[in-house]
């Protein structure tokens, strides 16, 4: 599932994001969502989130549901 719709993303999901510094290469970083930073319900480049480790980027793919 892609990460363009805010309703599909919630805290605790495991996702792949693209960090700002990696936008040119498209390199993905995997992590668990801590909070959602995009206010709109849809964004064509992906909803911006902060991972539990503090990294910020746009969701490219949702990997799995709530992780423990």
Report on the architecture of this protein:
By secondary structure, this protein is an all-beta fold. It has one domain: SH3 type barrels (Roll). Helix content is 0%, strand content 46%. The protein contains no helices and four strands. The protein has strands spanning 13-19, 28-36, 48-51, 56-66. Strands 1-2-3-4 form a four-stranded antiparallel beta barrel.
Number of helices: 0
Radius of gyration: 10 Å
Low-confidence stretches: none
Largest sheet: 4 strands, antiparallel, barrel
Category from helices, strands and their pairing = mainly beta
CATH class: Mainly Beta
Mean pLDDT: 94
Which CATH architecture is right? Roll
- Beta-strand content bin: over 45%
Q: Give the CATH topology.
A: SH3 type barrels
In total, how many beta strands?
Answer: 4
Helix and strand succession?
EEEE
Identify the strand order in the major beta sheet: 1-2-3-4
What does the secondary structure layout of this molecule look like, with pairings?
Elements: E1 13-19, E2 28-36, E3 48-51, E4 56-66
Antiparallel strand pairs: 1-2, 1-4, 2-3, 3-4
Task: Throw out a few tags for this protein.
SH3 type barrels; mainly beta; 68 residues; four-stranded antiparallel beta barrel; globular
The gist of it:
The protein has strands at 13-19, 28-36, 48-51, 56-66.
